[in-house]
Amino acid sequence: MRPLVLLRCVATLLVLGVAGPAWANPPAPVLPEPSGPPPAPPPWMPRNEAQRTAEVPVGRALWRPGRGIELATPNRRFTLNINMWAQLLYTARREAIPAAGMEPWSNSLEFRRARLILSGNIFTPHVGYYVHLMFAPKDLGFKDGTPRRAPIFQWYTTWTRYRHVNLQAGFFFVPYARQRMQPLAKLQMVDNSSASYEFTLDQDIGVQVSSPDVAGLGKLRYFAGVFMGEGYEFYKARDFGLTYMARVDYLPLGMFDDYSEADHERSARPRLSIGAAYAFSDRDHRTRAIGGTAFADGGTMRSNNVTVDLMFKIAGMSLLLDFYWRQGWRLPGGLLDMSGMPAPVETARNGVGWTAQMGLFIPRTRVELTARSSGVRPSRRVDTSLARLDEYGAGVNYYFYRHSLKLQLDYFRQWGPGLPAGVADQLRLQLQAGF
Predict the structure, then answer these.
(1) Could you tell me the superkingdom of the organism this chain comes from (predicted)?
(2) What is the pTM of this model?
């Protein structure tokens, strides 16, 4: 690469990589282009599925279902993808022990998510950008009519000149746990599991290196990164407590779209992805690694975080399994309570969690049946403030045009000391539309 070209790439990375959001994180695996005539669709695939999801020219632009409209210069040095999607969510919930003054039953109709995504490349196909903005009131943390959070969901820049060392910088999901790395618009159920929300590492500002296909084998990818550890509080100056992580995915049967839960391809060929990750969080200011609330005593936490997961697909059936482990230790802060006494030191949330989730398409239809069980358990060996929580549920999805237009219905029961209400039943109906 000539020095001037290299300088432009580095300058672009530094300018665009200072903040960050995304539709998918990490970017979807780079699959090889098929050669020869397309294979015949499986006999259990709905009719005209390929035509319904095909790309469509729009003047000089290109319409890509699920990815929006692409604009590009003739030499493709500059491209822009514009994509928008939203989720309208109805929730009916019953709590065994409702909050003071509240009824056991409640219901709501809300814009769960409303997103705008801009992505593409600049100057060269190897320098990319990704901007994911959010506009729903819940996403912006509205309180008393005032937003409390910036509309940035993810925002990052990538440099992909070398297959084995892709560089990504900005604000994005730490590539730690599979469920949180999957695109929000491609979830099999209305939301992630309780275990995922307890143990995952959320968005943070940082830098990572990765490879979508190590050595061109079509079976291995990796991620490694360093993050500030402050999540959405990246605008604050803090100490040098950083988060360090590494993840490896092994696909023994070849590459496939393992960061989308449903098996829309319905291939009779079995597909398997096994992942494992480790993260060390140094002097984190919140109760969960890059998540949770601030410690009442004003201190921090160091923690070791481990997860392993599995994604398996065949003929319209998908199976997701994951396991989490966290062990941390506190560094008290010494703040005083209202009476002038030292605030109690809250122990770290040490424990384990797991998810088992399955989906099955009814042959020759766009109907998918789903089920999930998830649990959180406090550690038995070290002190912990984590409480037990269990959930199980089932659902049904109808994909009018895959994830571009779908209707999801699920029911869940949660129970355990980790739930203030003791026991809660929840029914959710969600419509998602995007282009």
Answers:
(1) Bacteria
(2) 0.87
